Amino acid sequence: MANYIKDNDLYYEIVLSKGRGKLTRKAEQMFILLANNIIRKKAYYNPDDRADCLNTAIFQLLNNWKSFNEKKYALALPFFTEVAKRGLAAGFNELHPKQMTGQYVSMDVLNTNYI
What we know:
Blueprint: H1 7-20, H2 25-39, H3 47-64, H4 77-95, H5 107-110
Helix pairs in contact: 2-3, 2-4, 3-4
């Protein structure tokens, strides 16, 4: 397999997989290659964080392949690239959750009956 993915090939494999009800092995390999190509553009200080984020991205791709709507989208690669990017971000946010900045909303302000 080449180190790049052709959109037509990915599209075909996804449509074929949806018809069979199971992701094809070639589509799985394409997802792994896609996630590896995307993560190369990101910098991680910790190699373990990089591996965790990569695994989260691959998990998101494997978990969400059925949500691709071939009647709505003519191209599969942009759709799954976005899924992988969001998976990388989700993995990083899980490892390094954002801290609250101390800005809180009082619950009595939300209660309209209080006034």
